[in-house]
Automatic annotation (TrEMBL):
Gene3D superfamilies: 3.40.50.2300, Homeodomain-like. Transmembrane segments: none annotated. The gene is xylR. CDD domains: PBP1_XylR (cd01543). This is Xylose activator XylR (AraC family).
Length: 408
């Protein structure tokens, strides 16, 4: 037998279950991090994965495998895996109280305090002085959301401020209209301008829709930031959503590394690793500027919703209810630029975001999506404003994205 054959005979293939919900961006990115670890090492794992890990919980203690990496934000997973004798690595949110961690199980956590603090610091840098948190109803499955509330409260107390926390209703088809009505009622009670941190991008998107329904200008009156940097949330909102980028891929790599050590005899009971956020993707929803004139505020609200539909200055003036010349005068006095410049600036920011996130659409399709009259016109705008073509801008991104991002 050849030496290569001997290596194949002696190499152990481990059967590993990944108990995650593949429908969630948080879980998908952790799974991707696990995959990155495997591709960069000599670990040989057969992975067992369902779209939703809850399909595997029943009878998991009888599963004939070698190890498990699981989402411990769900209390059912904690209970089911307490009966398992295999090596287990837990992944989930961090806790202010050490007693809330799952015993001796090695645990890799997203740092909830640092997630909220990064969002809070960003809103402070935007010049805001009032803050609120949009959370989720209290429940065992939402423990991570309640931890983010605690982080928000801690920051408010530290700075001697009174912050609003609103949980609202959970998401379901029968309660959707009622939930939006209640969100609007809450928003109308808040002092303006105000910065709001939502515990997820999905929650932020709901609140953004409520703002648009109520005619509340984002970000002039409400500056909004979520957590997750979910591409789907960006696609589904008329005003592009700012978001804190969790270090989920690093969490996945770390969890895989811990399990790899345990499979080879490592003793890691009680190990806890907190992974900080990777940065912020700053988009229109939190770019708070405080124009003092109401006509400028109304115009900005309209531009942020409809710039990518190819609107002209005349349409903005019609919406505000003033002449084009008057609106131009207000814009130059308040912002130092024309209405057309503001429309163009917004479209350019949206195009940059699509290119930065490696959007699957072609340059021509991005030009249409952003409201440019032609791909040639978008090229001309990029050359004039950034000194490069859209393709050159995209080609530069791997170097620019080597570290945490803050897209301004």
């Amino acid at each position: 037998m050849t030496l290569l054959g001997d290596c194949r005979m002696t190499r152990t293939v481990h059967r590993i279950a990944l108990l995650f919900n593949g429908n969630k961006i948080f879980d998908r990115d952790i799974i991707a991090g696990i995959g990155e670890y495997l591709s960069s090492t000599r670990a040989s794992w057969d992975l067992f994965l369902e779209e939703d890990f809850r399909c595997r919980l029943q009878g998991i203690e009888r599963w004939q495998g070698h190890g498990i990496i699981a989402d411990f934000d769900d209390p059912e997973a904690c209970a089911a895996l307490s009966r398992v004798s295999l090596p287990v690595v837990a992944v989930g949110g961090s806790y202010a109280d050490a007693a809330d961690y799952p015993g001796d199980t090695p645990y890799v956590a997203t740092d909830n305090f640092k997630l909220v603090k990064l969002a809070y610091d960003h809103l402070i840098e935007a010049g805001l002085q009032r803050f609120a948190c949009f959370s989720l109803p209290q429940a065992d499955v939402n423990r991570w959301a309640q931890e983010r509330e605690k982080a928000f409260e801690s920051l408010m107390q530290r700075d001697g401020m009174q912050g609003e926390i609103y949980r609202g209703l959970g998401t379901s088809a029968p309660s959707w209209d009622t939930a939006v009505e209640q969100q609007i009622a809450w928003l109308q009670t808040l002092p303006k301008p105000i910065g709001i941190i939502a515990v997820t991008d999905a929650r932020a998107r709901q609140l953004l829709q409520a703002c648009l329904c109520a005619g509340i200008a984002v970000p002039e009156q409400v500056a909004l930031i979520g957590i997750d940097n979910d591409p789907l949330a960006r696609i589904l909102t008329r005003v592009p959503l700012s978001s804190v980028i969790q270090g989920t891929r690093e969490m996945g790599r770390t969890a895989a590394h811990l399990l790899h050590q345990m499979l080879h005899g490592g003793r890691l009971a009680g190990t806890r690793i907190l992974v900080p956020p990777a940065g912020i993707n700053v988009l229109a929803s939190s770019r708070h500027e405080a124009p003092s004139h109401p006509h400028v505020m109304q115009a900005m609200h309209f531009i942020r919703q409809y710039a990518c539909q190819g609107i002209k200055t005349e349409q903005v003036a019609d919406y505000v209810g003033v002449s084009r010349s008057s609106l131009e005068w207000y814009f130059r006095r308040e912002l130092g630029r024309s209405v057309h410049d503001e429309i163009l600036r917004f479209k350019l920011d949206v195009a940059k975001d699509m290119l930065q996130h490696k959007d699957q659409r072609s340059i021509a399709e991005i030009a249409v999506s952003c409201g440019f009259t032609s791909v040639q016109y978008m090229h001309a705008v990029f050359k004039r404003e950034l000194g490069c073509t859209p393709r050159e801008y995209q080609d530069r991104l791997p170097q620019a994205e080597a570290g945490p991002l803050s897209l301004n």
